[in-house]
């Protein structure tokens, strides 16, 4: 896979992300990045809002809704619990994102 390795260490801090680190409007990279679509965009996620959601297994929990190149056109933005997002997320990469675009893989 060409290109994904180039981003592997970018913006990564040695400390794990916590709930307090998650901010609306910020973009986060995956621990194991994958590319999506014809344009080969990385599956980074941008947080749209944070609040209470209902999880079928856990009941009402702190959750968030996100946008990502992995969300297919015409679909609702996914909502997941903060704990699941933190398991997926590697680092806040908002500062290195291209202006108005998603990163390419």
From TrEMBL:
Domain of life, source organism: Bacteria
Protein name per Swiss-Prot or TrEMBL: Uncharacterized protein
UniProt organism field: Aggregatibacter aphrophilus
């Amino acid at each position: 896979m060409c290109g994904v390795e180039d981003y592997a260490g970018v913006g990564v801090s040695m400390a794990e992300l916590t709930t307090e680190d998650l901010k609306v409007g910020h973009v986060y990279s995956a621990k194991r990045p994958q590319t999506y679509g014809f344009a080969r965009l990385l599956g980074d996620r941008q947080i749209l809002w944070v609040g209470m959601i209902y999880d079928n297994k856990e009941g009402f929990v702190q959750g968030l809704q996100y946008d990502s190149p992995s969300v297919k056109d015409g679909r609702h933005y996914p909502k997941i619990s903060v704990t699941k997002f933190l398991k997926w997320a590697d680092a806040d990469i908002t500062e290195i994102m291209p202006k108005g675009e998603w990163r390419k893989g």
